[in-house]
Amino acid sequence: MTNRLRTEIQEEVEAEKKLVVEEKTVKEIPDNFLTQFLTKGFITTEAATKALPFVLYVALLGMVYIGNRHLAEKNIRDIDKLTKEVKELSWDYKSTKADLAFKSTLTEVEKRADTLGIKTSMQPPQKITVKEDAQ
User: Are 120 and 110 in contact (CB under 8 A)?
Assistant: First the structure.
């Protein structure tokens, strides 16, 4: 009598050995300027650490440039907003001035005075003269 379990396991192991594992070939990195620059050792760690202060300085200048640009655009928007407000206030001033000039005409003053009960005199104005002896 044979051990049936052992023979099955051995058959499975033999079947696994027969399976051929295909390995994918690794794609070669194209040999261009960038890959040569980064992989072939054109930049060493010493050169990178030497250049680090300059890179940080350039990054700082870039951030200052971007911040300055945002500030300038904000100022331009504020100037445009104030210009529109000045134009609107100018229109209000001109319309109020014209309205006041219209309301201060003699006929308009008479119309408003009639509602208060004041009427214009029909007699021309008289000149009052003071004699020196009367004082």
Answer: yes
| Spatial separation of the C-alpha atoms in residues 47 and 126, rounded to whole Å | 105
Q: What φ, ψ does residue 132 adopt, rounded to 5°? A: -70, -30
Global model pTM greater than 0.70: no
Four-point Cα dihedral 31, 33, 36, 39, nearest 10: -110
Distance CA 74, CA 66 (A): 12
Instruction: Report the pLDDT value the prediction gives residue 40, as an integer from 0 to 100.
Output: 65
At 48 the pLDDT is: 77
Calculate the CA 74 to chain-centre distance: 7
Task: Please give the structure tokens belonging to residue 110.
Answer: 């008479």
Of 85, 66, 86, the C-alpha closest to 74 is 66
Which tens digits make up the pLDDT trace of 69-82? 999 999 999 999 99
What is the rounded distance in angstroms from the CA atom of residue 74 to the CA atom of residue 64? 15
N-term to C-term CA, the chain: 163
